[in-house]
Amino acid sequence: MRVKCVLCDTINRIDANSFEAKRLRNRRIHMYLCPSCDHRIGEKTKKRHATGNFNLYREKKNEDYIS
Prior knowledge:
two-stranded antiparallel sheet; single chain; flat; mainly alpha
């Protein structure tokens, strides 16, 4: 399967039966990042997280149970 990186527009081939290929086919919102962009983004995220100014906004779960 041919895929295109959303950041640098390089075209790569991945196995059509891989988990990543299945995720890209079935869920259109997922994007492909080439290994170099993925590594670069990961390193920058780790640096921002280490500064302490990085906030991860997670979905709040309501625990309203009927008892």
